[in-house]
């Protein structure tokens, strides 16, 4: 499945927030805090139409979690069929993706890097190798880094330097082993998204 491989800072500037979590995007947003393009300086975010605001919110979510439009729409449709609040269901499904769990556990510095660890076969779920980034983990699943990969200098750097604390729904049982304690609650998801705007966009 294809994924976005273009300029990341350009996406972040267009949406007004650091999407991929890299230092380069932070610098770009500080130096040029306006949308890209010839008319970027003259655009006014405050005058955006309702549709544009909803669309940008959807794009934030899609780029943040690394999904194509088709994948994202599939997640939304499944969330709308489930009991409960559609927007919260959607965010929960996105958080439970295996690549996001690897990122949340602190093993990947960014979600794209975590996705690479998964797709290259370095992740085990309940003792079995899983190389599908969109694989959805469940409560009580055990996710871990393959023993042969644990000495990887990138993983060691992420563990020692980033030292990211996992969210409450992930119980880290070791440096490279974690158990899914429960499904994430909305207040445990710190991604700055207004999911109701996405629901309104797809409900039209």
CATH topology of the largest domain: Structural Genomics Hypothetical 15.5 Kd Protein In mrcA-pckA Intergenic Region, Chain A
What's the overall geometry?
globular
Low-confidence sequence ranges: none
Sequence of strands across the biggest β-sheet: 2-1-3-5-4
Helix content: 40-55%
Determine Rg (CA atoms, Å): 18 Å
Summarize the biggest pleated sheet: 5 strands, antiparallel
Return the CATH class of the largest domain. Answer: Alpha Beta
Strand content: 5-15%
Can you count the helices?
A: 9
Cα(first) to Cα(last) distance is: 27 Å
Describe the structure.
This protein is of the alpha+beta class and 204 residues long. The protein is 44% helix and 9% strand. The protein has nine helices and five strands. Strands 2-1-3-5-4 form a five-stranded antiparallel beta sheet, covered by helices on one side. Strand 1 and strand 2 form a beta hairpin. Helix 3 crosses helix 9, helix 4 packs across helix 5 and helix 5 packs across helix 9. The longest helix is centred in the first third of the chain and has 16 residues. The protein is globular. The model has no long low-confidence stretch (mean pLDDT 86).
Highlighted features:
9% strand; 9 helices; 204 residues; 3 domains; Ribosomal Protein S4 Delta 41, Chain A, domain 1; five-stranded antiparallel sheet; alpha+beta; 5 strands; Structural Genomics Hypothetical 15.5 Kd Protein In mrcA-pckA Intergenic Region, Chain A
